[in-house]
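lol ok so funny story. i was supposed to be doing the assay writeup but got distracted and ended up predicting the structure for this chain instead. priorities right. anyway since i did it might as well share w the group, maybe its usefull for someone
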Amino acid sequence: MNGEENTPTPSGLPAALGAYIIWGFLPLYLILVKSVPPFEFVAWRIVWTLPICLAIVAFRRQGPDVRAAMGDGRVIRMLLASATLIAINWGTYVWAIQIGHVYAASLGYYINPLVNVLLGTLLLKERLSRLQWIAVAIAGCGVAILAAGAITTLWVSLTLAFSFGTYGLIRKRVEVGSLPGLTIESALLLIPAIGVTLFYGLGPEGSSFLRTPALSLSIILGGFLTAIPLLMFAIAARRMSYSTLGFIQFLAPTIVFILGLTVFHEELHPAQAASFGLIWVALALFVWDMWARGRRARPAATRA
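and the output, tada:
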């Protein structure tokens, strides 16, 4: 296929940072749509993501890539699995934020990098340096502290971590470009999503869409805030080590964690502060090791 993966690129890091920053600030957007039931909102996200993807496909002239992927049964089966996982992830996340479990949502994405390391080393045969394994161990201690204080909502965090971790693994391994893959995922989810919107529309409260112009525009905005970071993530997943991609993901839950303190006014407990510190020490070690190894590799590449 002749999607963006055929274009030489130095790194998937900018795409990863862009995706995680957008996801980190997503709770602020969810304030705008807090009156929309979580599952109706997820359905509307899917409904509005597809036309945005199709518009980008048309602009980039990737229609042949989409048609080629749709003709491959293995690709469709893998994308059906990834679409199901991301729908579960969206539904759980929106529900958690809207009922006030901001830290549980944040913890889910703190656990997720460890899931990425597990999947990357076991299934993709990725190898970490000794310093990176030390960073993983320190991060694991920090996450364990958080998890110990959140037993009642730990199922929320684990659902978020494993659904998104497995989603990313599938998107890394499936033989389809980032944009065509996201377009097909959205198309596979469209009929169930329309069914959900009709269910709510025929209910006693009626549809949230068209309730007010401001709310309607906010719901449409959800399509952009779904499509753009997922596209960035899919690009990054195909261009980076899955373990490294996971560790960079600590950025998103850290932003959510800070929003929980400053915007949602959740109480910060000493154990949470200690966990936060350990995770950032681990992230600093991981990034330092990446940078140092990159510096050593550049002179070797120049000599070659």
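Confidence is low (pLDDT under 50) at residues 1-10. The chain has 13 helices and no strands.
back to the writeup now i swear
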